[in-house]
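Sequence design from tokenized structure. All designs in this work follow the same two-part layout: the structure record, then the generated sequence. An example of the structure record is given first.
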């Protein structure tokens, strides 16, 4: 169940960490975030299809 999973921590207020996240999700099929409802919408994280 937990095979091939990796944990990373990124500070999304840090531009370098945001850029790293953007690079990782370019090839991803799914991005799951674990914020309270509405928090991600008001954050600095912007991902479009």
């Amino acid at each position: 169940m937990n095979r091939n999973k990796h944990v990373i921590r990124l500070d999304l207020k840090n531009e370098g960490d945001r850029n790293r996240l953007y690079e990782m999700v370019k090839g991803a099929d799914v991005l799951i975030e674990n914020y309270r409802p509405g928090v991600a919408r008001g954050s600095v994280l912007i991902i479009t299809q």
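Helices lie at 15-25. We note this feature because it recurs in several other targets discussed in the main text.
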